[in-house]
Design goal:
single chain, 707 residues, mainly alpha, 5 strands, 57% helix
């Protein structure tokens, strides 16, 4: 046998020792150490803890591998510009494949089960299992000495917490694989998703369409929930075996759960194709508020069920109004709590110099935002609503006070957390279809639910769009309504609400049906967005801000449909077309809120009446007083995130401007998408008012221009 040198193999010193230790650990894991151990209780407990630790790490490793696979695959899709499947759809598909492999090919070692019965004289509520079980075990111990021999019982009491109901007693380790406590979704995964949605909201277009968004979110979600629940209740009367398992309140609760939408797939494609900003704002704005309404609506229905007396056998008006009052109270209180903590963070960052330490500033920002969620949940409010409105306040006010480093960190951090959390949930949805033990498949109920969900969505979009068009300019076109209908994908929120309680057979059926609806909508509807845009003739590649292109003489490019048809450029919006609520709030915000919470001008000294001058001076910082007229120390959040009304001239969605002393530079590119070979022209103009600037597509001054 030839001699093998360790140095030639590249294994020297510590690396070789590390490999040897890993090999020994593997032998111990296989049970080799069992021959060396004495079998004492401590060693057995250590082995049990080691097995639990190993299982937890395997679970995390599984989902980490799925996320890596999803990221690599979606990079390949983006590199080749393939849009037929979003990363969430890929995560679901990979989860289904891995879940099936675990379920049908993985080892299933038996779990030791000890049947127990309540001791004599124990009283407990038979409808609700106890939270904790005390299991008392006795072990006979014999002690011998030189003169005597004594026998006594050594009693041990073990505590077991409640996990859930099982259908049979044949349990194995498969029930523990790749599953997590449902509270993990609510407490750790959903908050960053909701906060990122609010923090990255294009508030300019959100407020321009505020009336329509509120109508679709508040009225539309309620209509969807009641129509879906009522249709399911009507359909299941055809099947007697279903009618006895589901009450009307059960189907209404399911309607509220499944009314939560998550069009992340569609929004990603909208952003990539530069779909009309008003359509994007309607879809995104509705989905942001829709989650909050859905979760509060489920709370209200549960409240009515608790107050409802089944002996009356009919509608109870008192319980109904109590539930409605609780709905309004919870939503309003959660909104106020989130806004208050967002405002508190803005005040802290304005009146302190914490921005001199960007790391501490970022930590404060993140912790205050997460504290909002925890306080709401601890006070029996809704953390999702609180963190949503906290995110809006943080983006609108606190963002303006942050240092440049903290701005970049917070936006990047929450974008990363949102991506990981959302794809983790969709991966878990796929895996749990095979590994979660509380699924109940009922083909009739699943088919009924698919039909009812589609009809409920239609009852939301089309009638409300018809009513909104009476007082709305511009109108919501029929093609836009079709896109809004197909944008009602179900996702993370609906699944998190469904998995939270799987005790009864009906709730297990709700979980299974919700999972299938999420999987079907994300893969099939989300994957058909591009053909749908072509079918409905939706323009793509339009300017993100048509108002700027509407300046006299400024070039404006209309949109193209995906099949190449040229569309007319969107008509510039006017002040009267903005939501009246947005106009009222905008004036109040500019005069009082932003001067109070940020370093913007005009200051409170300029806007408050003379009698309030001492208070105004206290609330005005020296930084505000030394700023130029109408300026801010940093660019305003609304400018960075959603384009302000006074932005510089732009040509095309890829053009942008940067200022030099006395001049502004505008970049023009030949094509809608900037590629490596694109020709780029750098043109300079003196900085003038938008009304005075009149140029052609090459930057030449037109006759009559006052440059």
């Amino acid at each position: 046998m030839p001699n093998i040198s360790l140095s030639k193999c590249g294994i020297q010193g510590k690396p070789f020792i590390l490999v040897l230790l890993m090999f020994l650990s593997y032998l111990l894991h296989l049970g080799f150490c069992q021959e060396l151990m004495s079998g004492t209780p401590d060693s057995e407990y250590d082995e049990k803890a080691l097995n639990t630790h190993r299982l937890d790490n395997l679970n995390l490793l599984l989902y980490t591998f799925l996320l890596i696979l999803t990221v690599v695959t979606i990079w390949m899709f983006k590199h080749r510009r393939l849009r037929f499947l979003h990363e969430t759809g890929l995560a679901v598909i990979y989860g289904l494949v891995v879940g099936a492999i675990i379920r049908y090919t993985g080892p299933t070692p038996e779990v030791r089960v000890l049947p127990v019965v309540p001791s004599f004289g124990t009283h407990y509520n038979h409808s609700v299992p106890p939270d904790v079980l005390w299991l008392q075990l006795s072990k006979r111990i014999i002690e011998r000495s030189s003169k005597t021999s004594a026998t006594y019982l050594n009693n041990h009491t073990f505590v077991y917490t409640f996990k859930g109901e099982i259908d049979n007693t044949s349990l194995n380790e498969i029930d523990q694989k790749a599953t997590f406590d449902p509270e993990v979704f609510f407490n750790l995964l959903l908050p960053p998703i909701i906060f990122h949605a609010a923090y990255s909201l294009k508030r300019k277009y959100f407020f321009k369409n505020l009336g329509a968004i509120f109508t679709f979110a508040f009225v539309g979600t309620t209509v969807t929930a009641f129509v879906t629940g009522s249709l399911i209740w009507g359909f299941i009367q055809i099947f007697p075996y279903l009618a006895k398992d589901f009450s009307f309140l059960d189907t209404l609760y399911f309607g509220a759960v499944i009314s939560a939408t998550d069009p992340v797939t569609i929004l990603a494609i909208f952003s990539e194709l530069h779909v009309d900003v008003n359509l994007y704002a309607l879809v995104f704005g509705e989905s942001v508020l829709n989650d909050a309404i859905a979760i509060v609506l489920t709370r209200a229905i549960q409240s009515y069920a608790e107050k409802y007396n089944p002996n009356h056998g009919g509608f109870e008006m008192v319980a109904f109004f109590q539930a409605v009052g609780e709905f309004l109270l919870i939503f309003t209180s959660s909104l106020v709590l989130g806004s208050t903590l967002g405002i508190a963070t803005a005040l802290l960052t304005k009146f302190t110099r914490i921005r001199d330490f960007p790391l501490l500033e970022t930590c404060l920002f993140v912790l205050m935002s997460y504290t909002t969620f925890l306080i709401a949940e601890a006070t029996d409010l809704t953390g999702i609503v609180s963190v949503l409105f906290c995110g809006m306040c943080q983006a609108h006010y606190t963002y303006n006070n942050l240092s440049d480093d903290s701005r970049v960190r917070t936006k990047s951090l929450f974008e990363l957390l949102n991506f990981l959390a959302e794809n983790f949930i969709f991966s878990y949805i796929g895996v749990s279809m095979f590994t979660f033990p509380k699924h109940h498949f009922d083909v009739a109920f699943i088919c009924i639910s698919f039909i009812a969900v589609a009809l409920g969505r239609a009852a939301n979009i089309y009638p409300l769009s018809f009513l909104l068009n009476f007082g709305r300019k511009p109108k919501i076109s029929r093609n836009f309504q079709h896109v809004l209908f197909f944008s009602g994908l179900r996702g993370a929120m609906a699944f998190a609400l469904a998995i939270r309680n799987t005790m009864s057979k009906s709730r297990q059926t709700f979980l299974t049906t919700t999972s299938l609806i999420v999987i079907g909508s994300v893969i099939f509807v989300g994957g058909s967005v591009t053909p749908l845009l072509t079918c409905f003739g939706i323009p793509v590649g339009v300017d993100e801000d048509p108002e700027h292109a509407a300046l006299p003489g400024t070039p404006h490019r209309g949109g193209n449909t995906i099949d190449g048809t040229v569309t007319e450029p969107p008509r510039p919006s006017t002040q009267s077309e903005k939501s009246w609520l947005a106009r009222i709030w905008g004036g109040f915000d500019t005069k009082y809120m932003k001067p109070l919470l940020t370093h913007s001008k005009p200051t409170l000294i300029d806007t408050l009446p003379p009698c309030c001058l001492p208070v105004a001076r206290m609330l005005t910082t020296s930084e505000q007083l030394h700023l130029g007229n109408g300026g801010q120390g940093h660019s305003d959040s609304d400018i960075e995130l959603c384009i302000d009304d006074t932005d510089s001239v732009r040509s095309g969605p890829r053009a942008f401007a940067s200022t030099q002393p006395g001049f502004q530079r505008v970049y023009f590119v030949n094509d809608r998408k900037m590629a490596m070979d694109d020709e780029e022209r750098h043109l300079f103009y003196p900085i003038v008012s938008p009304e005075a600037l009149t140029v052609d597509s090459l930057g030449k001054q037109l006759p009559g221009s006052s440059v």
